[in-house]
Amino acid sequence: MFSSPESERPLAAVGALSRSRGVEHRGQTCLAGRVQGVEQKRDGSDATAILRVAEAEIGRDLRQQVQALLQACFPGYPSRSYFKLPPHFRYLAMTSGVLVAQMGVELRVIRVGSTVVRTFGVVDLCVRTSERSHGLAGRLLAEVTELARSCGVDFVILFADDGRLYTRGGWARAANPCSWVKIHDHTTLGLATAEDTGSLMVKRIGQQAWPIGEVDLLGHLF
Ligand SMILES: CC(C)(COP(=O)(O)OP(=O)(O)OC[C@H]1O[C@@H](n2cnc3c(N)ncnc32)[C@H](O)[C@@H]1OP(=O)(O)O)[C@@H](O)C(=O)NCCC(=O)NCCS
Question: Whose CA is nearest to atom 31 of ligand 1?
């Protein structure tokens, strides 16, 4: 299995966006620059807005909410808003100005065997306990899938021990050998390899079949 240290925790995440709507969200000035959002009706009178936000444009207040949600959802999560390195963008689900779900997404070119493929890697998908089992995570995964299609991304990949949510969304286990860069607390430790991570899941977006061969993540584990 994993030759990486305990600190190398496989995580999953997701996101996506469809219709573009402006930058303002309940007057939150912490969201500077390009933000896209989709209003989502909930059972009651309230609505959850799903936003796609570039990581660099997330302001301090919202970043603190992200960190608090991650620490609440993942026991032992470090005291920052990302596990290894910040993702490129996130999907944020906001209800009444409060962050209720989030998913990080990284644009990563990886090599599988001799084939170089363009992927979105999903990390740290999580939903506030009180909001679970209402399809929110599934919705974020559907959004990132839609974005991947519109961006010509070949695959959306993630690492998950529990595959239920993802199998339902069209992901499948992939048993390729895998290698990645071990990073712990901003220090590069070396290279990790696994014959089969047991947790890699892949969703095909385009016409290309998932290749045979070793997966070289060309970076850290998602
Ligand atoms: C996993 C999680 C994001 C699901 O969010 P959600 O909004 O409740 O998801 P959905 O409503 O779209 O789907 C719920 C289904 O996901 C599946 N599921 C539950 N926990 C899961 C988990 N940890 N991993 C994968 N699938 C899970 C179940 O089949 C569940 O169905 P149920 O509600 O009938 O039991 C949420 O439970 C969570 O934040 N867990 C803690 C963090 C975590 O484990 N994230 C996943 C990292 S890979």
Answer: 133
> Residue type for 96, please?
S
CATH class of 22-216: alpha beta
Look at ligand 1, atom 44, and give the residue with the nearest C-alpha: 126
Which residue's CA is the closest to the ligand 1 atom numbered 38?
A: 126
Higher pLDDT, 213 or 20: 213
For the chain, give every domain's residue range: 22-216
- CB–CB of 147/19 below 8 Å? no
The model's pLDDT over 45-57, given as tens digits with 9 standing for 90+, comes to 468 999 999 999 9
Instruction: Examine the pLDDT at 7 and tell me if it is beyond 50.
Output: no
Q: What is the pTM of this model?
A: 0.87
pLDDT range class, residue 39, cuts 50, 70, 90: low
Secondary structure (3-state) at 95: strand
Q: How far is CA 212 from CA 17, 112, 114, 175, 215, in A?
A: 31, 7, 9, 9, 9
If you measure from the C-alpha of residue 166 to the centroid of ligand 1, how many angstroms do you get, rounded to a whole number?
9
